[in-house]
Amino acid sequence: MTRTPSRGQMIAGAAELLGRRGLRAASIRQLAKSSGAPLGSTYHYFPDGKSQLATEAVQFAGDLTARVLAAELRQGPIAGLRAFVAVWRRIVTDSDFRAGCPVLAVSVEEPDEGDDAPVRAAAAVFEQWRDLLARSLVEHGADPEIAARTGTLIVAALEGTVAICRAQRDTRALDHTAAALEDVVTAALPH
Fold first, then answer.
1. In this predicted model, what pLDDT tens digit does every residue of 68-100 receive, in sequence order?
2. Is 1.10.357.10 the CATH number for 57-188?
3. I need a labelling partner for 170 at 20 to 30 A (CA). Which of 68, 87, 98, 139 fits?
């Protein structure tokens, strides 16, 4: 007897597919297939269809990354930054440069008419990551405005760098960006 994947497995599978293909290129059928679920089960768990599944997949990916980031930020902003970089390095290398960030993938695509829930979820995730980074910087003595700008810079730089790594099929851009961001974080902290 074949076991139908759980709702959580379907969300995780959708997040991975979105990171590989983006929202427009992933149909509800493909999203279901990526987790091994029958299409009927997908509509059972996600009655609002692709939009609901994509929104929850973005939130899942965001929360997963936020947990790693928050745990490492307890050691300080540099440790958090290094953990954030490690997450992206693992994603691109484990997928042989085929996967990127599902949050970015959803955010750069035009939403369906009247349905911007996945894009709003992506905006909330980016804000969550920025706030975690900024809060850690402030806790370690950075000016709140500089901390907010630095948090935004880190998220934006790493998201863009993941795209570069995928295109170049190499992680050198990630190494360069990480080193530059460590300099920025160090400069934001009191000496």
1. 999 999 999 999 999 999 999 999 999 999 999
2. yes
3. 68
